[in-house]
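Self-study notes.
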Amino acid sequence: MLFLRLSRIAIGAAVLFALLCAFVAPCAAAERVPIVITVLPSARHVDAEALRDAVSRDLGVEVLAPDDPAASSVALVITVGEDEARGELAVARRNGDNVLIRRVAIPRDVQELQQAAVFLIGNIARDEAWDLVGAIRPRPVEPPAPEPTKVTHAPAPKRLWLGVSAEGNLAFMPSGDDACLLNASAISVSGFVCMRDGRDYPALPAVDPAGAENQRIVPGKSDEVSGGLVFGNARFSLSADYAMSDDFLLGVRAGYTSATYPGQRVAPFGHLSLEARGTYLIGSQPLAHAGTSFAIAFGAGVAETSAHVSVTVLETGVDGGTRAEAWRIAGPWFVAAGTGVRFAPTDSTALIVLPLRYLRVRQRWDARLVRTGNRDADRIRLNERAASGHAQVMRLLRSPS
Protein backbone atom coordinates (compact mmCIF):
# COMPACT_ATOMS: atom_id res chain seq x y z
CA MET A 1 0.00 0.00 0.00
CA LEU A 2 2.81 2.39 0.89
CA PHE A 3 4.64 1.41 -2.28
CA LEU A 4 1.55 2.23 -4.36
CA ARG A 5 1.29 5.72 -2.80
CA LEU A 6 4.99 6.42 -3.40
CA SER A 7 4.61 5.36 -7.01
CA ARG A 8 1.69 7.75 -7.54
CA ILE A 9 3.69 10.62 -6.01
CA ALA A 10 6.67 9.90 -8.29
CA ILE A 11 4.47 9.75 -11.38
CA GLY A 12 2.80 13.09 -10.45
CA ALA A 13 6.16 14.78 -9.96
CA ALA A 14 7.37 13.51 -13.31
CA VAL A 15 4.27 14.85 -15.06
CA LEU A 16 4.63 18.24 -13.32
CA PHE A 17 8.29 18.44 -14.36
CA ALA A 18 7.41 17.60 -17.94
CA LEU A 19 4.75 20.32 -18.02
CA LEU A 20 7.20 22.89 -16.66
CA CYS A 21 9.71 21.93 -19.34
CA ALA A 22 7.01 22.19 -21.98
CA PHE A 23 5.87 25.70 -21.00
CA VAL A 24 8.82 27.46 -19.36
CA ALA A 25 11.86 26.15 -21.19
CA PRO A 26 10.54 26.79 -24.70
CA CYS A 27 9.58 30.36 -23.69
CA ALA A 28 13.08 31.05 -22.37
CA ALA A 29 14.54 29.53 -25.49
CA ALA A 30 12.26 31.63 -27.64
CA GLU A 31 13.48 34.75 -25.97
CA ARG A 32 17.08 33.83 -26.76
CA VAL A 33 16.70 32.72 -30.36
CA PRO A 34 19.45 34.42 -32.43
CA ILE A 35 18.41 36.69 -35.29
CA VAL A 36 20.02 37.76 -38.54
CA ILE A 37 19.94 41.45 -39.55
CA THR A 38 20.60 42.38 -43.18
CA VAL A 39 21.15 46.07 -44.07
CA LEU A 40 20.37 46.70 -47.75
CA PRO A 41 22.54 49.07 -49.87
CA SER A 42 19.57 51.46 -50.06
CA ALA A 43 19.98 52.13 -46.33
CA ARG A 44 23.11 54.18 -47.00
CA HIS A 45 22.74 56.25 -43.81
CA VAL A 46 22.52 53.21 -41.49
CA ASP A 47 25.68 51.88 -39.81
CA ALA A 48 25.12 48.11 -40.06
CA GLU A 49 27.65 47.04 -37.42
CA ALA A 50 26.52 49.65 -34.90
CA LEU A 51 22.89 48.70 -35.57
CA ARG A 52 23.52 45.00 -34.79
CA ASP A 53 25.35 45.88 -31.57
CA ALA A 54 22.51 48.18 -30.44
CA VAL A 55 19.82 45.56 -31.18
CA SER A 56 21.82 42.86 -29.38
CA ARG A 57 21.99 45.04 -26.25
CA ASP A 58 18.31 45.97 -26.54
CA LEU A 59 16.95 42.42 -26.96
CA GLY A 60 19.62 40.49 -25.07
CA VAL A 61 20.09 38.04 -27.97
CA GLU A 62 22.86 37.21 -30.38
CA VAL A 63 22.58 39.19 -33.63
CA LEU A 64 24.33 37.80 -36.71
CA ALA A 65 25.37 39.34 -40.01
CA PRO A 66 24.10 37.58 -43.18
CA ASP A 67 27.63 36.43 -44.06
CA ASP A 68 28.11 34.76 -40.66
CA PRO A 69 28.52 30.93 -41.05
CA ALA A 70 25.80 30.35 -38.44
CA ALA A 71 23.30 32.64 -40.20
CA SER A 72 22.08 29.93 -42.59
CA SER A 73 20.55 27.96 -39.70
CA VAL A 74 18.64 30.92 -38.21
CA ALA A 75 14.97 31.13 -39.12
CA LEU A 76 14.35 34.74 -38.06
CA VAL A 77 15.78 37.22 -40.59
CA ILE A 78 15.22 40.99 -40.37
CA THR A 79 15.97 43.28 -43.34
CA VAL A 80 16.50 47.07 -43.12
CA GLY A 81 16.21 49.42 -46.11
CA GLU A 82 15.31 53.00 -47.13
CA ASP A 83 12.57 53.79 -49.62
CA GLU A 84 13.76 57.22 -50.84
CA ALA A 85 10.84 57.58 -53.28
CA ARG A 86 8.39 57.42 -50.37
CA GLY A 87 10.79 58.95 -47.82
CA GLU A 88 10.40 55.94 -45.47
CA LEU A 89 12.60 53.65 -43.41
CA ALA A 90 11.36 50.05 -43.85
CA VAL A 91 12.07 47.03 -41.60
CA ALA A 92 10.91 43.59 -42.76
CA ARG A 93 10.75 40.37 -40.67
CA ARG A 94 10.85 37.02 -42.48
CA ASN A 95 10.33 33.69 -40.72
CA GLY A 96 9.79 31.00 -43.28
CA ASP A 97 6.93 32.14 -45.53
CA ASN A 98 5.70 34.78 -43.07
CA VAL A 99 6.73 38.38 -43.81
CA LEU A 100 5.90 41.45 -41.70
CA ILE A 101 6.92 45.01 -42.73
CA ARG A 102 6.90 48.17 -40.62
CA ARG A 103 7.67 51.69 -41.88
CA VAL A 104 8.31 55.19 -40.50
CA ALA A 105 9.24 58.47 -42.19
CA ILE A 106 13.01 58.86 -42.61
CA PRO A 107 14.38 61.25 -39.97
CA ARG A 108 16.68 64.00 -41.27
CA ASP A 109 19.22 63.41 -38.49
CA VAL A 110 21.47 60.34 -38.94
CA GLN A 111 21.48 59.57 -35.20
CA GLU A 112 17.67 59.69 -35.07
CA LEU A 113 17.58 57.40 -38.12
CA GLN A 114 19.76 54.83 -36.31
CA GLN A 115 17.54 54.99 -33.20
CA ALA A 116 14.39 54.57 -35.30
CA ALA A 117 15.86 51.44 -36.92
CA VAL A 118 16.69 49.94 -33.50
CA PHE A 119 13.17 50.69 -32.26
CA LEU A 120 11.48 49.06 -35.25
CA ILE A 121 13.69 45.96 -35.11
CA GLY A 122 13.05 45.55 -31.37
CA ASN A 123 9.31 45.95 -31.92
CA ILE A 124 9.15 43.48 -34.79
CA ALA A 125 11.47 40.94 -33.09
CA ARG A 126 9.38 40.92 -29.89
CA ASP A 127 6.32 40.12 -32.00
CA GLU A 128 8.23 37.09 -33.34
CA ALA A 129 9.03 35.91 -29.79
CA TRP A 130 5.32 36.06 -28.92
CA ASP A 131 4.54 33.99 -32.01
CA LEU A 132 6.94 31.26 -30.83
CA VAL A 133 5.43 31.19 -27.34
CA GLY A 134 1.95 31.18 -28.83
CA ALA A 135 2.72 27.88 -30.58
CA ILE A 136 3.16 26.28 -27.13
CA ARG A 137 0.38 27.92 -25.10
CA PRO A 138 -2.55 30.24 -25.80
CA ARG A 139 -1.45 33.79 -26.39
CA PRO A 140 -2.64 36.16 -23.64
CA VAL A 141 -4.79 39.13 -24.41
CA GLU A 142 -2.49 41.94 -25.57
CA PRO A 143 -2.98 45.54 -24.46
CA PRO A 144 -3.96 48.07 -27.14
CA ALA A 145 -1.16 48.80 -29.60
CA PRO A 146 0.82 51.93 -28.74
CA GLU A 147 0.55 55.01 -30.90
CA PRO A 148 2.99 55.01 -33.84
CA THR A 149 6.29 56.62 -33.01
CA LYS A 150 6.34 60.19 -34.22
CA VAL A 151 9.65 60.98 -35.89
CA THR A 152 10.61 64.61 -35.47
CA HIS A 153 12.00 66.20 -38.60
CA ALA A 154 14.53 68.98 -38.50
CA PRO A 155 12.87 72.39 -38.86
CA ALA A 156 12.68 73.69 -42.41
CA PRO A 157 14.46 76.94 -43.30
CA LYS A 158 12.50 80.17 -43.29
CA ARG A 159 12.06 81.25 -46.89
CA LEU A 160 11.28 84.90 -47.63
CA TRP A 161 12.94 87.60 -45.51
CA LEU A 162 12.36 91.35 -45.78
CA GLY A 163 14.60 93.91 -44.16
CA VAL A 164 16.26 97.31 -44.01
CA SER A 165 19.98 98.00 -44.17
CA ALA A 166 22.43 100.84 -43.61
CA GLU A 167 25.97 101.10 -44.92
CA GLY A 168 28.75 103.67 -44.62
CA ASN A 169 31.68 103.90 -47.06
CA LEU A 170 35.35 104.62 -46.55
CA ALA A 171 36.97 105.60 -49.86
CA PHE A 172 40.62 105.05 -50.73
CA MET A 173 41.44 108.57 -51.97
CA PRO A 174 44.46 108.68 -54.31
CA SER A 175 47.02 111.45 -54.04
CA GLY A 176 47.37 114.13 -56.72
CA ASP A 177 48.60 117.60 -57.60
CA ASP A 178 46.68 120.48 -59.12
CA ALA A 179 43.39 118.80 -58.24
CA CYS A 180 41.28 121.71 -59.47
CA LEU A 181 43.29 122.78 -62.50
CA LEU A 182 41.78 122.27 -65.97
CA ASN A 183 43.57 122.15 -69.30
CA ALA A 184 42.83 124.42 -72.25
CA SER A 185 39.81 122.25 -73.17
CA ALA A 186 38.32 122.68 -69.67
CA ILE A 187 39.12 119.05 -68.80
CA SER A 188 40.49 117.91 -65.43
CA VAL A 189 44.14 116.87 -65.60
CA SER A 190 44.12 115.09 -62.21
CA GLY A 191 41.03 112.87 -62.14
CA PHE A 192 39.45 115.16 -59.52
CA VAL A 193 36.70 117.73 -59.94
CA CYS A 194 36.27 120.66 -57.57
CA MET A 195 33.42 122.55 -55.94
CA ARG A 196 33.50 125.92 -54.15
CA ASP A 197 30.61 127.61 -52.38
CA GLY A 198 28.15 125.08 -53.83
CA ARG A 199 29.20 125.54 -57.49
CA ASP A 200 31.66 123.99 -59.91
CA TYR A 201 35.18 125.36 -59.59
CA PRO A 202 36.67 126.64 -61.81
CA ALA A 203 33.44 127.92 -63.30
CA LEU A 204 31.83 126.04 -66.18
CA PRO A 205 32.39 127.37 -69.73
CA ALA A 206 28.76 128.46 -69.83
CA VAL A 207 29.45 130.80 -66.91
CA ASP A 208 33.08 131.69 -67.68
CA PRO A 209 33.64 131.18 -71.45
CA ALA A 210 37.15 132.66 -71.33
CA GLY A 211 38.25 130.41 -68.45
CA ALA A 212 39.51 133.37 -66.45
CA GLU A 213 39.00 131.64 -63.08
CA ASN A 214 40.99 128.59 -64.22
CA GLN A 215 43.78 130.83 -65.53
CA ARG A 216 44.18 132.45 -62.10
CA ILE A 217 45.10 129.07 -60.48
CA VAL A 218 48.85 128.87 -59.86
CA PRO A 219 50.04 125.43 -61.11
CA GLY A 220 52.23 123.26 -58.88
CA LYS A 221 51.78 125.49 -55.85
CA SER A 222 48.56 124.30 -54.20
CA ASP A 223 45.37 122.15 -54.39
CA GLU A 224 47.34 119.04 -53.49
CA VAL A 225 45.52 115.88 -52.32
CA SER A 226 47.54 113.73 -49.87
CA GLY A 227 45.55 110.53 -50.37
CA GLY A 228 44.35 107.94 -47.84
CA LEU A 229 41.04 106.85 -46.35
CA VAL A 230 38.22 109.38 -46.21
CA PHE A 231 34.54 109.12 -45.36
CA GLY A 232 32.33 108.69 -48.40
CA ASN A 233 28.69 107.91 -49.08
CA ALA A 234 26.09 106.31 -46.85
CA ARG A 235 23.43 103.99 -48.27
CA PHE A 236 20.02 103.15 -46.85
CA SER A 237 18.16 100.28 -48.52
CA LEU A 238 15.17 97.98 -48.42
CA SER A 239 16.05 94.32 -48.90
CA ALA A 240 14.37 91.06 -49.89
CA ASP A 241 16.18 87.74 -49.46
CA TYR A 242 15.07 84.22 -50.35
CA ALA A 243 16.49 81.15 -48.58
CA MET A 244 17.70 78.85 -51.37
CA SER A 245 18.66 76.31 -48.67
CA ASP A 246 18.99 76.25 -44.89
CA ASP A 247 22.31 78.16 -45.08
CA PHE A 248 22.23 80.30 -48.25
CA LEU A 249 20.33 83.53 -49.00
CA LEU A 250 19.95 85.18 -52.39
CA GLY A 251 18.45 88.66 -52.50
CA VAL A 252 18.22 92.21 -53.84
CA ARG A 253 18.52 95.67 -52.32
CA ALA A 254 17.23 99.04 -53.49
CA GLY A 255 17.79 102.31 -51.72
CA TYR A 256 19.17 105.81 -51.38
CA THR A 257 22.81 106.97 -51.54
CA SER A 258 23.66 110.11 -49.60
CA ALA A 259 26.47 112.67 -50.05
CA THR A 260 26.69 112.26 -53.82
CA TYR A 261 28.51 114.69 -56.12
CA PRO A 262 26.42 117.88 -56.39
CA GLY A 263 28.13 119.51 -59.39
CA GLN A 264 27.64 119.46 -63.16
CA ARG A 265 31.17 119.04 -64.52
CA VAL A 266 30.76 115.24 -64.40
CA ALA A 267 27.36 113.67 -65.06
CA PRO A 268 26.51 112.09 -61.67
CA PHE A 269 24.71 108.77 -61.28
CA GLY A 270 22.39 110.18 -58.64
CA HIS A 271 21.11 108.83 -55.36
CA LEU A 272 19.80 105.44 -56.56
CA SER A 273 21.46 102.31 -55.17
CA LEU A 274 20.75 98.77 -56.47
CA GLU A 275 22.50 95.53 -55.52
CA ALA A 276 22.11 91.78 -55.95
CA ARG A 277 23.69 89.82 -53.11
CA GLY A 278 24.32 86.27 -51.96
CA THR A 279 24.92 85.43 -48.29
CA TYR A 280 26.33 82.10 -47.10
CA LEU A 281 25.90 81.23 -43.42
CA ILE A 282 28.14 78.81 -41.55
CA GLY A 283 26.40 76.91 -38.77
CA SER A 284 23.93 74.11 -38.02
CA GLN A 285 20.85 74.97 -40.13
CA PRO A 286 21.20 78.69 -39.28
CA LEU A 287 18.05 79.74 -41.14
CA ALA A 288 15.85 77.18 -39.38
CA HIS A 289 16.15 78.44 -35.82
CA ALA A 290 17.49 81.17 -33.55
CA GLY A 291 21.21 81.50 -32.91
CA THR A 292 24.47 83.05 -34.12
CA SER A 293 26.29 82.07 -37.31
CA PHE A 294 29.24 83.28 -39.37
CA ALA A 295 28.28 85.11 -42.59
CA ILE A 296 30.08 85.50 -45.94
CA ALA A 297 28.45 87.96 -48.35
CA PHE A 298 29.21 88.83 -51.97
CA GLY A 299 27.34 91.03 -54.41
CA ALA A 300 27.30 93.35 -57.42
CA GLY A 301 25.32 96.43 -58.26
CA VAL A 302 25.12 100.07 -59.31
CA ALA A 303 25.58 103.11 -57.10
CA GLU A 304 27.70 106.23 -56.99
CA THR A 305 30.81 105.88 -54.85
CA SER A 306 32.28 109.31 -54.19
CA ALA A 307 34.19 111.25 -51.56
CA HIS A 308 35.82 114.64 -51.22
CA VAL A 309 38.57 116.40 -49.29
CA SER A 310 39.24 120.08 -48.62
CA VAL A 311 42.14 121.71 -50.53
CA THR A 312 43.63 125.20 -50.69
CA VAL A 313 43.97 126.71 -54.17
CA LEU A 314 46.36 129.61 -54.77
CA GLU A 315 45.07 132.15 -57.27
CA THR A 316 46.93 135.05 -58.82
CA GLY A 317 45.92 138.25 -57.08
CA VAL A 318 44.14 136.48 -54.20
CA ASP A 319 45.88 136.59 -50.81
CA GLY A 320 45.86 133.43 -48.70
CA GLY A 321 44.36 131.21 -51.36
CA THR A 322 40.85 129.85 -51.85
CA ARG A 323 39.26 126.87 -50.07
CA ALA A 324 37.65 124.27 -52.33
CA GLU A 325 36.47 120.65 -52.23
CA ALA A 326 38.24 118.12 -54.43
CA TRP A 327 35.85 115.30 -55.39
CA ARG A 328 36.71 111.78 -56.53
CA ILE A 329 33.75 110.14 -58.26
CA ALA A 330 33.46 106.45 -59.17
CA GLY A 331 30.71 104.10 -60.28
CA PRO A 332 28.12 103.19 -61.00
CA TRP A 333 29.21 99.53 -61.34
CA PHE A 334 30.74 97.76 -58.35
CA VAL A 335 31.41 94.32 -56.91
CA ALA A 336 31.73 93.67 -53.18
CA ALA A 337 32.60 90.94 -50.69
CA GLY A 338 32.65 90.86 -46.90
CA THR A 339 32.42 88.75 -43.78
CA GLY A 340 30.58 89.14 -40.49
CA VAL A 341 27.99 87.52 -38.26
CA ARG A 342 24.26 86.87 -38.31
CA PHE A 343 22.49 87.03 -34.96
CA ALA A 344 18.92 85.66 -34.80
CA PRO A 345 17.26 86.31 -31.40
CA THR A 346 14.18 84.41 -32.67
CA ASP A 347 13.51 82.11 -35.60
CA SER A 348 11.82 84.95 -37.50
CA THR A 349 14.07 87.96 -36.77
CA ALA A 350 17.75 88.42 -37.56
CA LEU A 351 20.53 91.02 -37.68
CA ILE A 352 23.44 90.71 -40.12
CA VAL A 353 26.54 92.80 -39.40
CA LEU A 354 29.42 93.01 -41.90
CA PRO A 355 31.97 95.23 -40.14
CA LEU A 356 34.29 95.30 -43.19
CA ARG A 357 33.08 94.99 -46.76
CA TYR A 358 35.51 95.55 -49.66
CA LEU A 359 34.20 97.25 -52.81
CA ARG A 360 35.85 97.35 -56.19
CA VAL A 361 34.22 100.16 -58.18
CA ARG A 362 34.29 100.47 -61.96
CA GLN A 363 34.45 104.08 -63.10
CA ARG A 364 32.64 104.77 -66.38
CA TRP A 365 34.92 106.59 -68.80
CA ASP A 366 34.16 110.26 -68.92
CA ALA A 367 35.78 112.65 -71.40
CA ARG A 368 35.81 115.34 -68.71
CA LEU A 369 38.07 113.23 -66.44
CA VAL A 370 41.11 112.58 -68.61
CA ARG A 371 44.68 112.33 -67.43
CA THR A 372 46.55 110.47 -70.14
CA GLY A 373 44.25 111.11 -73.07
CA ASN A 374 44.16 107.33 -73.66
CA ARG A 375 40.68 105.95 -73.14
CA ASP A 376 41.77 102.37 -72.31
CA ALA A 377 44.41 103.56 -69.86
CA ASP A 378 41.88 105.76 -68.11
CA ARG A 379 39.45 102.85 -67.79
CA ILE A 380 42.08 100.90 -65.86
CA ARG A 381 43.25 103.88 -63.78
CA LEU A 382 39.75 104.81 -62.70
CA ASN A 383 38.95 101.48 -61.05
CA GLU A 384 38.51 102.63 -57.48
CA ARG A 385 38.51 100.84 -54.12
CA ALA A 386 36.39 101.43 -51.05
CA ALA A 387 35.52 99.76 -47.77
CA SER A 388 32.24 99.85 -45.90
CA GLY A 389 30.54 98.79 -42.69
CA HIS A 390 27.13 97.19 -43.22
CA ALA A 391 24.21 96.34 -40.90
CA GLN A 392 20.92 94.74 -41.94
CA VAL A 393 17.81 93.92 -39.89
CA MET A 394 15.67 91.10 -41.36
CA ARG A 395 12.16 89.88 -40.62
CA LEU A 396 10.59 86.66 -41.83
CA LEU A 397 7.67 87.26 -44.20
CA ARG A 398 6.74 83.71 -45.20
CA SER A 399 7.67 80.19 -44.10
CA PRO A 400 7.49 77.18 -46.42
CA SER A 401 4.05 75.55 -46.58
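Second protein, same conventions, sequence then structure:
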Amino acid sequence: MNTIQTQGNSDTGEKSQAVLFLSMGNGSVPLGAGGEPLAIQEQRILGYRKAGTLDARVVQEFVEIGVSARDYRKRALLLAMLTYLGEHPHVRYVIFPSLGRFSRSHADFVALQRRFKKLGVDVFCATGDIIVGVNETDAFMAQLIAAAQSI
Protein backbone atom coordinates (compact mmCIF):
# COMPACT_ATOMS: atom_id res chain seq x y z
CA MET A 1 0.00 0.00 0.00
CA ASN A 2 2.12 2.86 -1.28
CA THR A 3 0.36 6.18 -1.78
CA ILE A 4 0.86 9.81 -2.67
CA GLN A 5 -1.42 12.35 -0.99
CA THR A 6 -1.68 16.01 -1.90
CA GLN A 7 -2.36 18.43 0.94
CA GLY A 8 -4.22 21.51 -0.29
CA ASN A 9 -3.09 24.09 -2.82
CA SER A 10 0.68 24.09 -3.29
CA ASP A 11 0.74 27.45 -5.08
CA THR A 12 0.20 29.72 -2.09
CA GLY A 13 3.36 31.31 -0.82
CA GLU A 14 2.73 32.13 2.84
CA LYS A 15 5.10 29.58 4.36
CA SER A 16 7.97 27.45 3.18
CA GLN A 17 6.75 24.17 1.75
CA ALA A 18 7.58 20.66 2.91
CA VAL A 19 7.02 17.09 1.78
CA LEU A 20 6.58 14.16 4.17
CA PHE A 21 8.04 10.76 3.32
CA LEU A 22 6.32 8.30 5.66
CA SER A 23 7.86 4.86 5.49
CA MET A 24 8.03 1.48 7.17
CA GLY A 25 9.71 -1.69 6.00
CA ASN A 26 7.37 -4.24 7.59
CA GLY A 27 3.87 -4.45 6.14
CA SER A 28 2.30 -6.58 8.91
CA VAL A 29 1.70 -4.22 11.82
CA PRO A 30 -1.23 -2.99 13.93
CA LEU A 31 -3.70 -0.91 11.97
CA GLY A 32 -5.33 2.27 13.14
CA ALA A 33 -8.28 4.34 11.93
CA GLY A 34 -8.98 3.94 8.24
CA GLY A 35 -6.89 0.76 8.00
CA GLU A 36 -3.61 2.67 7.95
CA PRO A 37 -0.73 1.32 10.08
CA LEU A 38 -0.42 3.04 13.46
CA ALA A 39 3.29 3.61 12.79
CA ILE A 40 2.46 5.68 9.70
CA GLN A 41 -0.11 7.70 11.66
CA GLU A 42 2.50 8.41 14.36
CA GLN A 43 5.09 9.37 11.73
CA ARG A 44 2.59 11.79 10.20
CA ILE A 45 2.00 13.50 13.55
CA LEU A 46 5.74 13.84 14.15
CA GLY A 47 6.30 15.01 10.56
CA TYR A 48 3.71 17.76 10.84
CA ARG A 49 5.19 18.78 14.18
CA LYS A 50 8.67 18.99 12.58
CA ALA A 51 7.23 21.03 9.68
CA GLY A 52 5.81 23.41 12.28
CA THR A 53 9.23 23.91 13.86
CA LEU A 54 10.54 24.78 10.37
CA ASP A 55 7.61 27.21 9.83
CA ALA A 56 6.67 25.10 6.81
CA ARG A 57 3.42 23.83 5.38
CA VAL A 58 3.17 20.19 4.25
CA VAL A 59 2.00 20.11 0.63
CA GLN A 60 2.53 16.44 -0.20
CA GLU A 61 2.84 13.07 1.54
CA PHE A 62 4.47 9.95 0.14
CA VAL A 63 3.57 6.79 2.10
CA GLU A 64 5.81 3.75 1.56
CA ILE A 65 5.01 0.43 3.25
CA GLY A 66 6.86 -2.86 2.99
CA VAL A 67 9.87 -1.61 1.03
CA SER A 68 13.47 -1.98 2.15
CA ALA A 69 15.50 1.21 2.59
CA ARG A 70 18.70 -0.49 1.38
CA ASP A 71 18.56 0.53 -2.31
CA TYR A 72 16.83 3.79 -3.22
CA ARG A 73 16.66 2.78 -6.90
CA LYS A 74 14.17 0.05 -5.90
CA ARG A 75 11.95 2.46 -3.95
CA ALA A 76 9.31 3.58 -6.44
CA LEU A 77 7.79 6.18 -4.11
CA LEU A 78 11.17 7.67 -3.22
CA LEU A 79 11.93 8.01 -6.93
CA ALA A 80 8.47 9.55 -7.45
CA MET A 81 9.21 12.03 -4.68
CA LEU A 82 12.53 13.00 -6.30
CA THR A 83 10.66 13.61 -9.57
CA TYR A 84 8.03 15.65 -7.72
CA LEU A 85 10.74 17.79 -6.13
CA GLY A 86 12.32 18.40 -9.53
CA GLU A 87 8.94 19.57 -10.83
CA HIS A 88 8.16 21.68 -7.73
CA PRO A 89 11.24 23.78 -6.94
CA HIS A 90 9.29 25.79 -4.34
CA VAL A 91 9.51 22.84 -1.89
CA ARG A 92 12.32 23.55 0.58
CA TYR A 93 12.12 20.60 2.98
CA VAL A 94 11.64 16.84 3.00
CA ILE A 95 10.89 15.17 6.31
CA PHE A 96 11.65 11.46 6.84
CA PRO A 97 10.54 9.54 9.94
CA SER A 98 14.11 8.53 10.80
CA LEU A 99 17.60 8.24 9.40
CA GLY A 100 17.07 4.49 8.94
CA ARG A 101 14.09 5.10 6.64
CA PHE A 102 16.13 7.63 4.64
CA SER A 103 18.86 5.12 3.84
CA ARG A 104 20.39 1.95 5.23
CA SER A 105 23.57 1.89 3.16
CA HIS A 106 26.45 4.32 2.92
CA ALA A 107 26.47 4.35 -0.90
CA ASP A 108 22.75 5.15 -1.08
CA PHE A 109 23.10 7.72 1.68
CA VAL A 110 25.73 9.62 -0.27
CA ALA A 111 23.85 9.29 -3.58
CA LEU A 112 20.60 10.53 -2.04
CA GLN A 113 22.39 13.30 -0.22
CA ARG A 114 23.82 14.56 -3.50
CA ARG A 115 20.44 14.36 -5.27
CA PHE A 116 18.70 16.35 -2.56
CA LYS A 117 21.47 18.95 -2.51
CA LYS A 118 21.22 19.31 -6.29
CA LEU A 119 17.47 19.89 -5.88
CA GLY A 120 18.19 22.53 -3.22
CA VAL A 121 16.16 20.69 -0.59
CA ASP A 122 17.03 20.29 3.08
CA VAL A 123 16.16 16.87 4.51
CA PHE A 124 15.24 16.35 8.16
CA CYS A 125 14.35 13.50 10.46
CA ALA A 126 10.94 14.02 12.06
CA THR A 127 12.46 13.35 15.48
CA GLY A 128 15.91 14.78 14.92
CA ASP A 129 18.12 17.12 13.06
CA ILE A 130 19.02 17.81 9.47
CA ILE A 131 20.24 14.91 7.31
CA VAL A 132 21.06 16.76 4.10
CA GLY A 133 22.12 20.38 4.12
CA VAL A 134 25.30 19.87 6.07
CA ASN A 135 28.59 18.69 4.62
CA GLU A 136 28.89 15.00 3.74
CA THR A 137 31.24 14.20 6.63
CA ASP A 138 28.79 15.55 9.21
CA ALA A 139 25.87 13.73 7.63
CA PHE A 140 27.81 10.46 7.41
CA MET A 141 28.74 10.82 11.07
CA ALA A 142 25.04 11.27 11.86
CA GLN A 143 24.34 8.00 10.02
CA LEU A 144 27.08 6.17 11.94
CA ILE A 145 25.83 7.47 15.27
CA ALA A 146 22.25 6.44 14.48
CA ALA A 147 23.42 2.97 13.41
CA ALA A 148 25.44 2.53 16.59
CA GLN A 149 22.47 3.56 18.71
CA SER A 150 20.22 0.95 17.09
CA ILE A 151 22.52 -1.96 18.03
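Instructor comment on the second fold: The radius of gyration is 15 Å.
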